[in-house]
Amino acid sequence: MIAPVPFRLFMNPRHGVPGVVVLPESGFRRASAEIRGWPGRLPRPPVALPELAQAAGLASLHLGQVASPGYAYALSRLLRAELARRNMPAGAPGAVTFACAQGRGDDLAAIASAARRLGVRCMAFVEDGAVPGNDAQVLRGGYEEAMRHAGQQGWLFVSAWAAAGYTEVPRDIMQGDRVAVSEALAALPVAPTHVVVPGGQGGLAAATATQLRALGGATPRLVVAEPAGASPLMGEAEGRPAQAPPGLLAWQELERSAFAFLEAPDALGGVLAAAAEASSRVALGLDATSRLLVLGQDADPAEGSAGQGSQQGGLA
């Protein structure tokens, strides 16, 4: 018996419309080669939930927790480029400072941890008193203040949220996300027919959408899940943009590749509730042959430990 969970489903009317290439294959191959060469990195295979699958009337159900290497990969590339621009040796990263901020869905602890492992300072701008561990110097302010100070001080600003004129770092973060998604998909016994992924600022969802197309054959249907009251992606799809809209690159991908948007307290409970409701089940195309993968994101700072190996391998 599936416990009832309140949910709202919106089928994307633009699904399948052609669009621009957001994450080029060349960038993915570069990210994959670097990240998979990090020492000690162990991908997490999805966990099968056969009893829940049977209760929901599905062929299979897997739950995957993606520990994204995206921040560590993007910071490593950004540091290499900056040292080359300054004509500085690889062993002098201490002269470089990164800046990050709350307000766009970034995991400041993951950014700060990756910066520490690369040997650089990190200035974290926060507005609510949260402290991203002991790996950053905390300053008062938000996204705009962080960008302004970074420009004035010569710091390198880091965010997964892409906007006009700021796309390179978010794209690298998304390519790192895509590597983690590819590993989760490769660990499944059979490719899924449906994938549920959290929305957030959209980076992981867009990376998932891109990797699903790369599987070949019939592309699995992507459902983007967001909590009630914090659903900017669903709002954008419905034509009611939020005060903090999704990132530019992420939305360029998701506006055409998301099959549906789901609003629920949690992704797994929401999609199981949708599978139990007749009209939503039909709309999503769920039946006894469906293979469902539900992805969650854990921007584990420990993933940034690979950044140290990346720096040593790529900068030496």
From TrEMBL:
In terms of superkingdom, the source organism counts as: Bacteria
Query: According to its UniProt record, what is one Pfam family this protein matches?
Result: PALP
Q: Which residues form the signal peptide?
A: none
Query: Keyword Lipoprotein on this protein?
Result: no
- Name the keywords, alphabetized: Pyridoxal phosphate
Q: Where are the transmembrane segments?
A: none
Tell me which cofactor or cofactors this protein depends on. Answer: pyridoxal 5'-phosphate
Q: Where is the Tryptophan synthase beta chain-like PALP domain?
A: 87-245
Q: What is this protein called?
A: Pyridoxal-phosphate dependent enzyme
Organism field: Pseudoroseomonas ludipueritiae
